[in-house]
Amino acid sequence: MNTYDVAIIGAGPAGITASISAAFLKKNVILLEKQNSIGRKISVCGAGRCNFLNEILNESYYNSNAQKFVKSIFSQFGKKEILEFFDKLGLKYYSEDGKFFPITNQSASVSRILEIWLKKFKVPVELGFEVTDVGMDKDGFLIMSKDSKKLKCKKVIFATGGKAYPALGSSLSLYDVAAKFGHSIITPVPAAVPLVVKDPFCHFLQGQKIYAKVKCIIDDKMTAEANGEVLFTKYGLSGTAILDVSESISIAINRYNNKNVKIEVDMVPFIDKENLEEELSQRLANGFTDEALITGILPNKFVKVLNDLLKRKDILVLSAAIKEKSFNILGTRGWNEAEFTAGGINTDEVSRDTLESKFKKNIYFAGEILDVCGARGGYNLAFAWASGFISAKYA
Fold it and tell me: Which listed site, 67, 122, 267, 305, has its alpha carbon 20 to 30 Å from 78?
């Protein structure tokens, strides 16, 4: 049985980066992946275009309890180093609205260039290797798979990702293995996820998309806000603005069972309330029909859902319904529809300099298995590249 310098569990963005980096440093490394191919989560990033980085990269775009941790990692391997890494790999890219994409606009270009360099460095990739346990051995660690395969290594990097997109290989099993070494797990919940709402607006406006300003209100306090698309669906609310505020909602509902959660939507952020009231009053004074009161302000579908208010011709109430529409949030959609995971290995228990476990020497963590959740826009991939490199550097 071969003994490797480093065994990396998980062939996602963090694991692949760690493998290439360790091989570059002349380490005898092996990459273990339970699926039958590598880099599958990369394929769905950025709607298939792979938004792999953001122009503005700092800790403020991550969950508050992990910001010092993230800052330390990016101080060693930040935007400049990530771009240099991909330059060396030969990936051509461009920036659009502050987001970096491969020049081909295809996620496959990113995963393929990474795979090419794994082969160039002759990194053995063991597919179909579903790790069930990591035990101690006189030479370091003994890793066991579901089908009874075994291998030895001196150091281990856990890069198994979170729970989002279970069809692409996510699971909870490696959290349990990490817990065996003393690590606590911050309960993982779906993030960047659509919300479940029962409201006539959602029923009558199914498929309607608008540009809006959204506020998340938990226990009567605003916790997040975002501008962007709001999509009304048969189950509730989706769209970029909803995804951008969904993390705190998911934590409140799914982790802490909090029922006092609302979304307030300003459906016409391009006009303030006073000017809206003035516009509606002028239309009413000019004898506009009920339907015409909101024509050109909101899509025609809104006439049906606002019909009762339009008939009442109470401008203050109508304006409030348009500018401050409140939705009670019943829950979130599941892991299959979540882009990210909020939760994971407690970062207080991992060195922010080396990513080594504070409880067990020679165990390292990288990527989304950690309780690090970034905003949409390339932030989670950025942390995956950076933590993959840093974990390999010190392992």
Answer: 122
